[in-house]
Specification:
It contains six helices and twelve strands. The protein is α/β, with parallel strands linked by helices. About 15% of the residues are buried. Strand 4 and strand 5 form a beta hairpin. The protein folds into three domains: about 45 residues; about 60 residues, membrane protein fhac (Ubiquitin-like (UB roll)); about 160 residues, Cell division protein FtsQ/DivIB (Rossmann fold, 3-Layer(aba) Sandwich). The protein has a nine-stranded mixed β-sheet. Strands 1-3-2 form a three-stranded mixed β-sheet, with helices on one face.
């Protein structure tokens, strides 16, 4: 009797394992079938031609029509005719495109999210500088006419952008904006302001010299409405100012005389001689 019970118990155990094995085999087969047909479905999905391109971004500089046409030409008959990373790299190489994300939507739509560069200033007539201080080359600058222009050697972009930021911050309280900033091949700085003043700063102590200009504004020897043509800041003890009219030159001379500014009080002195008449060493 005990032997019969043991045999029956073993048989139940064997049957339990057989059932488990059958269930596992059936599940594996089902999953394999699902996986196969899912993969086939994915392949069919990806091979369907793209008939619609949707750009989910508000674009200021990138031409939507040209971008869509360019993408269609790259994709060709199917979405996987080219590697997706290659397509993204191609789009991102366009002058105004900073970031790009591509998503395929069922059944025949490609959605694109484009992030444009934000221009801070024009760079001569060959491109612009973005918010990261990077020089982006493009000849499509029509929409950037209101931005200031920077100029200099390409490898000086970071230095010029930094100087622009510093000078712009100093001049902001005086309602003055930089319209042009240049660092030439000799390392000399020149700036034009939005009130038509042209200021020569030279190679050294640019910050000190621009602060000397703000001192003249603080002491009202100059106002932003003064009809000044050029200001030469390259003198250690003075400023050479070229006026656009003789009348204004006489008025300022009268103010200087009235306030009895001595020749040794260099922080408030305005030298009205033209640059060629100056005897100081310029820096």
């Amino acid at each position: 009797m005990q032997k019969t019970k043991r045999d029956y118990s073993k048989l139940k155990t064997i049957l339990r394992y057989v059932k488990l094995a059958m269930k596992t085999s059936i599940l594996t087969a089902l999953l394999g079938g699902i996986g196969f047909y899912s993969w086939q479905g994915i392949q069919i999905f990806l091979k369907l031609p793209i008939t619609e391109i949707v750009i989910n971004s508000k674009l200021h500089y990138v031409d939507r029509g040209k971008l869509s046409l360019h993408v269609k030409e790259m994709i060709g008959d199917s979405f996987i005719s080219k590697n997706i990373s290659h397509i993204q790299a191609e789009i991102q190489s366009m002058a105004w495109v900073d970031t790009v994300n591509l998503v395929r939507k069922w059944p025949d739509q490609l959605q694109m999210t484009i992030g444009e560069h934000t221009p801070i200033a024009r760079w001569s007539n060959i491109g612009f500088v973005n918010t990261r201080g990077e020089l982006i080359l493009t000849d499509n600058l029509e929409k950037l006419a209101i931005l200031p222009e920077l100029n200099g050697k390409k490898n000086d972009v970071a230095d010029i952008m930094h100087e622009y930021s510093v000078l712009a911050k100093i001049l902001q309280p005086y309602q003055l904006k930089i319209s042009y900033l240049e660092k030439n091949k000799r390392g000399a700085w020149r700036v034009a302001l939005d009130n038509n003043w042209k200021v020569t700063l030279g190679r050294d102590e640019v910050l000190k010299k621009i602060n000397r200009l703000t001192q003249l504004l603080d002491q009202q020897w100059l106002t932003i409405a003064s009809s000044v043509d050029t200001i030469d800041m390259r003198y250690p003890n003075g400023v050479s100012v070229k006026w656009s009219t003789d009348n204004l030159e006489k008025n300022i001379e009268g103010q200087v005389g009235k306030n009895k500014v001595s020749s040794t009080d260099h922080s408030k002195k305005i030298e009205l001689s033209h640059a060629k008449d100056m005897t100081h060493t310029r820096g």
